[in-house]
Design a protein that fits this description.
Layout (H helix, E strand, L loop, with lengths): L2 H10 L2 H11 L9 H16 L3 E9 L4 E2 L2 E2 L3 E13 L5 E5 L14 E10 L18 E4 L3 H10 L5 E4 L34 E3 L2 H13 L5 E11 L1 E10 L6 E7 L7 H23 L9 E7 L3 H8 L8 E8 L5 H4 L2 E5 L9 H10 L5 E2 L6 E2 L4 E4 L7 H4 L10 E5 L16 H20 L2 H31 L5 H24 L9 H36 L13 H7 L1 E5 L16 H13 L3 H11 L6 H12 L4 H14 L2 E5 L1
Parallel strand pairs: 6-7, 7-8, 8-9, 12-13, 12-14, 14-19, 15-18
Antiparallel strand pairs: 1-11, 2-3, 4-5, 4-10, 6-10, 11-13, 15-19, 16-17, 20-21
Helix pairs in contact: 1-11, 2-6, 2-11, 6-11, 9-11, 9-12, 12-13, 12-14, 13-14, 16-19, 17-18
The protein binds zinc ion.
Length: 671
């Protein structure tokens, strides 16, 4: 159905043109709400226009006070120059950090400082009160590899330290082992919520930081640095680049990519912005030349500061949201995989927002995985790594795909990238062939959806049905495999099978049902969809019977004496959570920055402890947020999370939701 579009788009699209866009964007230092970001956005708008699109800058107040839904707007920040110089011991005197060498040598959003000369004290991580026992940091610079916002609070706000010198980095097994980034600067920023004492800091590479730490340890005299930082935070603007290919109706399809991040940040995310620009150029050219008919729905391109720009865009256009049929988010799509180590991922929408768009995206993506043929020429396959994953979040699709917004938005991303958020994310890590794939997939996906009518809807319904059915079968297969691995666990698996099956069937049928959005009121489509839905439900029931038979036999033959399964009694915590009915007080995902300051210091520590002790809490919390509909109890929300991701964390959710309630992001009703 889309092959003729894909062929034309593939012929026109150029990875090299997209790579030129990456080079242009990466020249700018693109901190959310900064002159560099505005320059990049202005450049992108010009580029859209040069390619024949209608385009403009959308500006929003960046005053550090206003909100877009629950998202606190940043203050605009600019930096002219900054230096950190080691002055004592004199024989070691040298520059430690210079803005002109790398924009990453500074903690972003630092307040102005100096020139000032001060002693350096090493505080280790500096995240706990104990780290400061027997240390006097007042009037001194603290050397740390801990969380800078936390160290700012403990060292600067509570103990009068002057500023920070940070030398931490990422360690992620297996792609980014210890030492891999020893000579890279990590992207580090203050995320001011307002009301904090002003602060500043510099960033050193881990190797340089350890050297300085050693110098402090070994030197008989104090180690002193001279710091100077010429920056300002002020009420300014947050800019989005907006471009549109007009359709013939009021509906639209959105292509979003974040254009922010420090200079150069090529893969993250000059690459996504560049691929979106190339997709726009290609479609505009083909439509103007009459090779593709003008679509019925508009195709909107937004290049935004990550999340904050999407919040601002959507909050300012609530009346347009019902007409947004679907979106796609492009994030880190240009990676040279042999160097950066990741895989190209199609990330699905959350299961609280099941949609046919996942099937369409998978189907289109498959077309760019035919790089070479096997020896006999009987099949073709990719020369790069790729996969499909469930929703994970962390980028602009997190805002669009929130059920309170309701614009289904898969994401194209490459992950992991060992150079992510460091000074090593440079142009040589970007592969034009990858940029081209991303541009082709997003252009084809967006154009297909923008022009989809009855015939396309009929096809995508059957495609979604087939793919959801395959997925359903795969889930049951996996269930049997896992349960068979441990026969003593089979009774529990059998006991939980029905609930899990009902949930899977619901997600699959809703995905198929969502196709009716493309042609509302068409009776033939509704009938076809109802047939597919009935088939999926019947399949799930048949699978429950088959799986029950198989697992019962596995258990019987295993010789394991397993106790019959009894549904666990509700614990005290379960009952407590079942009495709470959380209500979301804002449209769009809750954004905690700016709200956590409403907590007492004890509560802020509680939030920190929760996040530290529950490493999966963030992921559980995001999915729980999507299931929170004002009707389900928190216990029921947590059970939905369990069904979606295989596990949940009610203890975390109870603690977290109580704090969300205290912050004013969630209302907590009782029943
Ligand atoms: Zn990023």
């Amino acid at each position: 159905m889309f092959k003729h579009v894909l062929d034309k788009v593939s012929k026109e699209a150029s990875g090299e043109i997209a790579l030129n866009y990456v080079a242009e964007i990466s020249r700018h230092h693109r901190i959310q709400a900064s002159p560099g970001l505005s320059d990049a956005v202005a450049w992108a708008v010009d580029a859209f226009k040069a390619n024949g699109l209608e385009a403009e800058v959308h500006s929003y107040p960046a005053d550090g006070r206003g909100y877009a839904w629950s998202s606190l707007m940043f203050k605009e920040w600019s930096c002219v120059d900054a230096e950190l110089e080691l002055v004592e011991p004199q024989e070691k005197a040298c520059f430690l950090a210079r803005w002109r060498e790398s924009k990453l040598s500074l903690i972003q959003r630092s307040h102005p400082a100096g020139p000032v000369t001060a002693e350096v004290v090493h505080v280790g991580k500096g995240e706990e009160q104990e780290d400061y026992r027997d240390l006097d940091v007042r009037g001194r610079m603290v050397l740390t590899d801990g969380d800078v916002q936390r160290v700012h609070r403990l060292a600067v706000e509570e103990r009068g330290a002057l500023g920070l010198i940070y030398y931490g980095t990422w360690v992620r097994e297996p792609d980014t082992p210890e030492g891999e980034l020893d000579d890279a600067l990590k992207y580090t920023s203050f995320w001011w919520a307002g009301g904090e004492k002003p602060g500043f800091g510099f960033v050193l590479t881990p190797r340089r930081g350890r050297w300085l730490r050693g110098l402090i340890k070994d030197s008989k005299r104090p180690v002193r640095v001279k710091a100077r930082l010429d920056s300002s935070l002020y009420e300014g603007v947050l800019d989005n680049a907006y471009a549109v290919i007009r359709g013939t109706t009021g509906e639209q399809v959105v292509v979003v990519a974040h254009i922010c991040h420090p200079q150069p940040s090529c893969n993250d995310n000059a690459s996504g912005s560049a691929a979106a620009l190339e997709a726009a150029r290609v479609l505009q050219k083909l439509i103007r030349a009459g090779e593709l008919p003008r679509p019925r729905r508009s195709i909107v391109f937004t290049l935004v500061p990550e999340m904050s720009g999407s919040y601002a865009h959507l909050a300012a256009r609530e009346s347009e949201i019902p007409g947004m049929v679907a979106a796609v988010n492009m994030d880190m799509v240009g990676e040279r995989q042999c160097v950066t180590s990741g895989s190209f991922i199609v990330e699905r929408t959350p299961e609280a927002l099941p949609s046919y768009v996942n099937s369409l995206m998978e189907c289109v993506f498959k077309e760019v995985t035919r790089d070479v043929k096997n020896l006999g020429g009987s099949s073709s396959y990719a020369l790069f790594r790729h996969t499909t994953t469930p929703f994970s979040g962390g980028s602009d699709h997190y805002v669009y795909s929130d059920p309170t917004v309701g614009v289904p938005c898969p994401m194209l991303i490459q992950w992991p990238d060992k150079f992510w958020h460091t000074s090593y994310d440079t142009l040589d890590k970007v592969d034009p062939a990858m940029l081209k794939r991303a541009a082709v997939v997003s252009a084809t996906y967006a154009y297909f959806l923008a022009s989809a009518g009855l015939a396309e809807a009929a096809w995508i319904a059957s495609e979604t049905f087939a793919r959801e059915k395959a997925r359903l079968l795969e889930r049951f297969r996996d269930y049997v495999e896992r349960a068979s691995a441990d026969p003593s666990d089979v009774p529990r698996r059998l006991g939980e099978l029905k609930d899990q099956a009902t949930y899977w069937a619901e997600v699959a049928t809703k995905a198929v049902e969502s196709v009716t959005r493309l042609a509302p009121g068409d009776v033939a489509l509704e009938e076809a969809v109802a047939g597919f839905m009935g088939d999926l439900e019947a399949e799930a029931k048949a699978q429950v019977r088959a799986v029950t038979q198989t697992l019962s036999r596995v258990l019987g033959l295993s010789g394991v004496e397993a106790k019959p399964y009894r549904r666990p009694q509700m614990r005290k915590l379960d009952r407590e959570a079942d009495a709470l009915v959380p209500v979301r007080l804002f449209r769009g995902p809750w954004s905690v920055r700016g709200w956590d300051v409403k907590l007492s210091l004890v509560e802020q520590d509680e939030l920190r402890r929760l996040n530290r002790e529950h490493p999966e809490g963030g992921s559980v919390g995001t999915l729980a947020m999507y299931w929170t509909d004002g009707v389900r109890s928190l216990y029921e929300v947590s059970e939905r999370v369990r069904l979606e991701r295989g596990s949940t964390d009610l203890e975390y959710l109870v603690g977290f939701y109580r704090l969300l309630g205290r912050m004013g992001l969630v209302g907590l009703g009782h029943r």
